[in-house]
Amino acid sequence: MMVMWVKSRMHSRGWRLQWLPRVPLLGVVALMLAMLLHVPDLHAQSTTGTIANSVINALTTKKDSDPEPQPPSDVIEQLEGYMHLGMVRNLDADPTGRMLLTSSEDKTARLWDTQQGRLLQIFRPPVDPKGIDGKLYAGAISPHGKVVAIGGWTGWKWDEKVSVYLMQVHDGSMLKRLTNLPSQVNDLAFSPDGRYLAVALSGSNGFRVYRVSDGALVGGERNFEQSTNRLVYAPDGRLAVSSYDGFIRLYNTRLQRIRKVKPIGNARPFGISFSPDGELLAVGYRDRLKVLVLSADDLSIHYQPDLSSLRELGSMHLVDWSKDGTYLYAAGTVSIGGRYVIRKWDKGGTPSGGVVAALDLPVGHDTVMDIAALAKGGIAYVSADPSVGVLDSRGFPRFYHNRPHADYRGIGSRFQLSRDGSLVRYALDAGGERLGIFSFPELGILARSQVETYGPMQSRKGLSAQLSGSGQLTIQGRHAVKLEKDEKVVSYGLDARRPAVAVGGNSFIALANASGAYYWKRWLGVAAHAVNLTQDGRFVVAACDDGVLRWFGVRAGQPVVSLFPHRNGQSWIVWSPKGLYAASEGASGLLGWQVNRQKRQAARFTAANKKPSYNRPEHFRRLLK
């Protein structure tokens, strides 16, 4: 009877009964007591609702001590060079051939116009500012071109599981997540009708297939022997999957495995591609110079395109067919005369008793990471430089975007500092063919300077260090610098006065003593290709893989200032840890700040040119003096 009375009172005050089942028994008792003790005042606003709601809220609100894990909320300095700043790992083209999606280790995916190379959209997933979470290894465009899927090492930091993000093309926002994946995402593919998304996983985790409309898991296969590399849909909806376990697997439209074949024993298949009619399946191998064309019916070897002219120059592990089936393309680690190439076979490379025409198309200066044939002819590619490009149907460049940042690999002694570190000399290209000079007092790039500068000291009396080919640094011939798993040393420099060594790692910078112990160590997330110490003993400076020159205080390794000189040799921007900046004319958009929101939302990015009050040139002119 009392319950019915409470129900009546609740309805009379417009409360919703659906709250009651969520309230524990003690909460119901407290709520009823609050109502029984209340004497309404017809001339004053009732407080019963306030009391009841307080009880309900206290009992139904999740405890602050146990919130749902979310991405870090740090403000993250982010370079924006209108091009990728890290290795581009994956490429996909929409069915019309109008758009390209590129996914990169710089933690962004980008959508490009295929005709002029115009940047259409940037997709920014939640990231870990102090780790690898957010690096993208896979991406796919839906058949209707309105949604993209991106994934890689994404979401593990806060969920301890990996997620795939579905993002909207028109504004870059996140539509939904596909969650609870056990390992890194290596590849993504939409079904021809756009209803399903296939996800290739690293390790022995096989692949999964999700229904796009509601994110439901509808199929897949687990427990592969090694990583799943690529997956591709045939026009009729069959699915082919390659794995480093050597097998090519074929599934019907109900996701039932109908074939499992190892075309070559003890080999590692990587790229796969159905011919446009769905009758053939091309396969490229990662560990040898081999491309096979299989029957898409029983996966038997149909023929082997000729690669004899390339001898053992590398692998052609990426494959794709032209959309009319006339040409077969392959690419990978093969370079000719210093240029990496895409091989293009006429007639799909089919042996016909005569010589099949083959053309090698030069495309870049680093490993080709992915290729995609376009609907109206031509081929798109991405490389590790990073670079993004498109060749037309005749093999001529339609557009080519290269890295916007300087390449400090092999910079060595050309990385020089003035005594106080206020002037720096650096190389713009690997090997040091083009050099740059930046002066903080003059706040700009100089054509020449008479200021004396010093390169990294590699040896001196009383202090020595040796760097092995495996990335181990030994000090004084006997003290090895301690490294964590997957860490390597790539550069070092000796202090001119003290028994200290600046250590540049593949993801960190540190200062060590003569016994190899660290005074301090800071995570960078990128390689420090060169390190140098100022002669006055105040700063350690690193030339990093993302093109940034970074100054750190010697005492505690605190960041002092960063400089990004654009590869064009003219544009630049400098900034402090507090967000102050100065830039050459038109270059203030090269830097911004990214902030994660909820894990179900894309990150927010604000360019420096949107914060003109932070532009403080005079601060930097006197900063290092």
From TrEMBL:
Transmembrane segments: none annotated. WD repeats lie at residues 81-122. Coiled coil: none annotated. Keywords: Repeat, WD repeat. Pfam families: WD40. This is Uncharacterized protein. It comes from Magnetococcus massalia (strain MO-1). The lineage of its organism: Bacteria, Pseudomonadati, Pseudomonadota, Magnetococcia, Magnetococcales.
